[in-house]
Structures are given as C-alpha cells and as structure tokens.
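Quick one before lunch.
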Amino acid sequence: MVKNLRITTECPINQEKDNFKTVIIDKASYNKLNDEFDPTRDLISYSAKYDENKDILIKIKVQKYMRNAFESDSSIVVLLDFIRDSGSYILPFHIRGATDHWWEVAYSIKNEKLLMQNSEDTPHLKDQKIIELLQINEKDSEIKLKIDLKKLKQFGWSENFPLYVQILTHKGEIITDSFNDPKPYENANFLVGAMPINKFLKYNSKCQEIHPH
Ligand SMILES: [Ca+2]
Ligand SMILES: [Ca+2]
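Model of the calcium ion complex:
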C-alpha cells in the first residue's frame, strides 16, 4: 500500500502566455538535501501545448533555476511511456526507485546537455532524438522541450494511445521531487500516476494542483 498519496484539486483552465496550458501545479513540499541547489530541484509546475507542426511542447518550471546544479549530479528527468505492455519500471540513470508507468525512453536534462536512455526491450530506440531542448529561461526558471510525435509514430505510437509523461528531479540516486507523487522518497521511491498529455490537451482537461497532505 502506497501511503501519502497526493491530494489534488482541480484548478481553473489556465491559458498561459504563448497558449501553453497548465497541466500540474505542485504546492507540495520536496526532498531537501540541504545543499545550495534545493530550489533548483523543486518542481513548481508544468504546462503543455501543440506547436504548429503538431508536436507537443512542454514547459517545466522550478523554484529557482541554477545552472551549477546541473553541472554536477542533479538533473531534470522526463520519462515517456508510449507503448503498452513494454518498457521498464526501474528508474533510469541509476536513480533509486520504480514507477507504475513503464517507460520506453528517458531523458536526463542537464542544462543544454541531454542524456537519453531506452528501456531494455526497446533497443531500436537507442540514440533516437525524441525529445529536444528548445529553451532554458533562467529568468523565469523554466525550460522548454519538444516531444517529436512523428518519431513516436515511427515507433508504434498513435494519437489514439495515451502518451504518458512523468517528470522528476534527482541528485545522484536520490529522487528529490516529482509531479507523480509529491513524496516518492517517502513511498519507497515509487512514482504513481502519470498524465496522458495528448489526451489532456485534446479534451481540454483542467489542471491539477498537488497539495501537501
Ligand atoms: Ca515541488
Ligand atoms: Ca510502456
């Protein structure tokens, strides 16, 4: 039994500037490691939209973006689960823990540098550039990514399937925050739940606010 499940409420449909739509606002606490980079690993919100080429853009906001954090062993990690009955439940990049959404590709974002990992049963995805970093906005503590849906379709995804996105931060092997569960580090490092981002955008769903319990 997973304890401390997140408590969420709906927040109003929020069209941000540039037509991004807020997906999740995280008001829960995070795992402070008491180095100078705690605020950089604190996830605040994420939002998404389709771009003019029908790819999905994702914007991730942290409390305070500090480049130095990502020059050492911290990063923002994005997991994509887009093939049913496939993928890995063990977290990538030697991060301790697991997820209930078995991912096919994972990206570790360290400033302009992206590391990619594919699950063991999807070797054909190795070195495929599915996520691209578009922008780091230090002033607003945001990064912007593109998910290449044409690439996903090449590898068996279709618009009818959910595209589950999971986002977390970590330092070394330790999870520090996630949008799936506010305190995975208190729940045996198990991430629960993920947003099917294409369905979210298609059905104009309301954003979720994660509250401390
Ligand atoms: Ca947070
Ligand atoms: Ca999967």
